[in-house]
Amino acid sequence: CLLDRLDFSKTRKWLLYINGGYLVLAFILIATGWYTHNAAIVTSVSIAGGIIAAGVFLAAVSLLGIYGTREQHQAALFFYMIILFVVFVVQCSVALACLGEVSPISLEEVISAGWKAATPATVYDAERAFGCCGLRNAGETTSSCEKLTCYSSGCPPCLKTMIESVGG
Q: Any transmembrane segments, and where (predicted)?
């Protein structure tokens, strides 16, 4: 029988390998967040901080899994499974929300709200990434459009460019 051949020692090895892989992935996330923050690739501190926080959370969960597996600690494994289940539910919810069709009007409202709440550095990053200036016109910006490469040819407004790029 297959279950007789798969005793707990093999399951334990696989759990250790998987959690070891998650630990490596966590350190990669932490290093990526640290690098993007220090190299000024992304000037928004919240984005780099979010990447680092995700790495720290993944490291904590994988260390809990490694501890529970090595010590055969039932309470640690129970909480490990509960955390994994909650993460799974949250990921599925976010995926379904992202797959839902968004009307162009609500997309415009979301982009406008994000634009108003963004720091000038984040606005400049968005303008540089999308090759545009200002939300609806060049007057609606907190950065200097002269620094952008599209300035000489006339930068389009960012709202239209962003809606087109998201497929709205």
A: 14-35, 41-65, 77-97
In whole angstroms, give the CA distance from residue 164 to residue 161: 5
* CA–CA separation, 152 and 123 (whole Å): 19
Please report, for residues 15, 55, 66, 127, 148, the alpha-carbon distance to residue 120 in angstroms, rounded to integers and kept in the order given.
45, 27, 43, 10, 14
Contacts of 40 (CB under 8 A, 6+ apart): none
DSSP string, 49-72: HHHHHHHHHHHHHHHHHHHHHHHT
Percent of the chain predicted with pLDDT > 70: 87
Residues 62, 81: contact at Cβ < 8 Å? no
pTM beyond 0.85, yes or no: no
* Neighbour-count burial for 41-60, b at 16+ CB within 10 Å, e otherwise: ebebeebbeebbeebeebbe
**Average pLDDT rounded to a whole number, residues 78-107:** 87
Question: b/e string for 85-119 if b means 16 or more Cβ within 10 A?
Answer: eeeeeeeeeeeeeeeeebeeeebbeebeeebeeee
